[in-house]
């Protein structure tokens, strides 16, 4: 018997697609080369603490439909992401808000802060910012750019801020209220029981094979289903024929500490270039844990090379042009659906992945 769908990748995109296809009475098999389901939202429970093995994930969305959707699979706690930045020896609140402006300049009112930023914009800002550096200075001025953005960004992406696309920095809110919520979205939280609960519920009653690599047995896998949903790297799917797209890789160092509270916050960014990691995550704080011990993770950005884990797509002009060529090939593949961060070469958050998977399902089943 042939399956209706072979889904390559048991991450959030593949799991939502599988769940929805099954709901429509289709048969699915999901394979993943890793030893577990969940892709990068996978958590490992270590003595009661859910460790975000592939970096911090905080669910947030403004879309009630997506919020209701994800709440079918888990309840969420009231966690609000309020990361702190440690830069040049001081702590600053994020995202850039009245607390940050006060810590930087001593400005006490929105008018004073706005004036300060406008002064800096007038001197250094550009009317049509062409890259991340120009965009950042135009948004928040030169001081914030130099203290909180430049070094962090260049270490995170391994490139000069002037060579990066501006949309990356537009993700961060800038506000003139004393509000440290990192997101502007209406809904936010961490799933109770961890992210694995969502994946387990999505993939309940669906055949899943881990430690199974599509590329090591491609011909076999191409023949076991009528259609393929591919969530891996699009360039690898096409044998890198136009050259490899570029990604940023990450390395995580997890440490078990025999103290109750290491840093007092789930996320502290280390913005200075002299630290080789970008942030330290203390996992228990995502779930208000009161264990006697704690687990922290240092996140080190790394250069990506073929074969290494690809985390962030580098959406600069050169890669975008290459990606467009792969996209043309993808469109010619009538029996393959490409989806997710790696196949669509996009900087997706979880809520966007769910929206994208639901959209592709509707298209596949000719629904409106
Ligand atoms: N960023 C920064 N300083 C910070 C936090 C973020 O310059 O303290 C910039 C950096 O370029 C980063 C981007 O903002 O890549 C997006 O940050 P976000 O926290 O959304 O990144 P993610 O959590 O997706 O890695």
Write the layout of secondary structure elements.
Elements: E1 3-8, H1 12-23, E2 28-31, E3 43-46, E4 49-52, E5 59-61, H2 64-71, E6 84-87, E7 90-93, H3 98-105, H4 110-124, H5 132-157, H6 167-170, E8 187-189, H7 195-202, E9 207-209, H8 218-222, E10 225-230, H9 234-237, E11 247-257, E12 267-270, E13 279-282, E14 294-303, E15 312-313, H10 317-332, E16 336-338, H11 350-364
Parallel strand pairs: 1-2, 1-10, 2-9, 6-12, 10-16
Antiparallel strand pairs: 3-4, 5-8, 6-7, 11-14, 11-15, 12-13, 13-14
Helix pairs in contact: 1-11, 4-5
The protein binds uridine-5'-diphosphate.
The site of uridine-5'-diphosphate has 13 residues, from helix 5 and helix 6.
Strand content: 15-25%
Strand order of the largest sheet: 7-6-12-13-14-11-15
Topology as a string of helices (H) and strands (E): EHEEEEHEEHHHHEHEHEHEEEEEHEH
- As residue ranges, the low-confidence spans are none
DSSP summary: helix tally: 11
CATH topology category name of the largest domain: Rossmann fold
- Based on Cα principal axes, name the global outline: globular
CATH architecture of the largest domain: 3-Layer(aba) Sandwich
| Count of separate structural domains | 2
Could you tell me which ligands this complex binds, including any ions or cofactors?
uridine-5'-diphosphate
Helix content, binned percent: 25-40%
Instruction: Give the termini separation.
Output: 30 Å
CATH superfamily of the largest domain: NAD(P)-binding Rossmann-like Domain
The biggest beta sheet, please?
A: 7 strands, mixed
Task: Give the beta-strand count.
Answer: 16
Mean pLDDT: 97
Class inferred from helices and paired strands: alpha/beta
